Amino acid sequence: MGVYRFLLTPRWWGINVFAVLAIPLCIFMGSWQLSRFEGRVQDHQQQESRSARAKAAAARPLESLLPVDTVTSGRQASARGHYDAGHQLLVPDRTLKDKRGERQGFYVLDLLRTDGGKALPVVRGWLPGDADSKADTAKVPAPPKGEVTVTGALQASENQGTDGVQAGGGLPQGQLGMISAASLVNIVPYTVYDAWITQTDPRAPLTAVPPAAVEGSGLDLKAFQNLGYTGEWFVFAGFVVFMWFRLFRRDAEAAKDAALGILPEGDDGGVGAGAVAAGGSSGAERESDRADGSGAGRGEERAEERAEERADEQGEAARAGRV
């Protein structure tokens, strides 16, 4: 234990306390980030399973599926009413992903005035092209007249983080940047459901818009960020262990060298002081050598002084004889 006495110094107390606290913290944070990633993977799998079941399940009345949550999102909902042809809206710059790849176009949205009085936003389909082009918008079919029953996948209102949303405003009249009750409240003179549906079987040339996954349930960038953070925390824990052993080995080797009397030039503190005390006899011998050397020097000085005194006496005797 004598060689490892440096572990009891205040410096090493600080190093040990830091390591004892940092390593469990890093492991805990890494495990927490890993559990979040696994939770997102599980949510994604559950959502895919629910979506598959929802497509095969029979449509249910809209009111029975509200409010929209992770369970009801994507479920087939039905509502009865008549379309408000005077407030048809286009949702520009929306991408459709299908077997043909990604295509740019716009949604066609109409408001279904239900028997209960509220209006339900219905995306009747998607068309390729530009919502600002008269040639492209001329292809939009008019909504059905009279009372109809509409069936489609239920979706939660969009927000600023939804793909394709234009929340900044500045769109021409007849266009909508975000499908939500908050965006429609200043456009139509009646109450709107805080939800919308994408129609399952739209009329040609419209293409059905597939329902979007519940926000936060997919394997998106945030999910893989959790996985990346997991690796970072575990790397931090390994780095703390590596640095502790590196410092320990360096100080242990220095203590062993000091115990053998091997000290760096100019090193008169720290481990060296302990080594001098531990060396004992070696230190005493060096002190004795230094004492002997200083004594010899003083003897030589005295001999020189006596020689000078004799020379002075001889000079005085010679002067007296001449007198």
TrEMBL record:
Location of region: Disordered: 270-323
Keywords annotated in UniProt: Cell membrane, Membrane, Transmembrane, Transmembrane helix
Pfam families reported for this sequence: SURF1
Major place of residence: membrane
Compositional bias annotation for Basic and acidic residues: 284-313
Subcellular location: Cell membrane; Membrane
Protein name: SURF1-like protein
Cited InterPro entries: Surf1/Shy1 (IPR002994), Surf1/Surf4 (IPR045214)
